[in-house]
Design brief:
single chain; 91 residues; alpha+beta; 2 domains; flat
């Protein structure tokens, strides 16, 4: 397998993914190179000024979807309901 790479150019960052096969070790190597300009400290400062992402809302949505997917199984065996948190106690 020949070496393959892909590069993404963002406004302040370049990301390069490289993949190559190493037949002498029977292995595959994948590397990620992230180059930030002006630097990671400036990106950290910029991210600190932006509002936080609502991860709690995303997690709650995901938990609700998992609970909904399990509902048919829970109807067959109510003992399985002990494995999932109740909607009123989930945080």
């Amino acid at each position: 397998m020949p070496e393959a790479s892909i590069t993404a150019h963002l406004p302040t960052m370049d990301i390069e993914l490289m993949r190559r096969h190493m037949p002498e070790q029977n292995a595959e190597l994948i590397s990620v190179l992230i180059r930030a300009t002006p630097g990671f400290a400036a990106m950290e400062h910029w991210l600190a000024q932006s509002p936080p992402l609502p991860f709690d809302e995303v997690f709650q949505w995901w938990a609700d979807m998992v609970r909904a997917a399990w509902q048919p199984w829970l109807a067959l065996n109510p003992a399985l309901a002990l494995l999932l948190p109740h909607p009123e106690t989930a945080t």
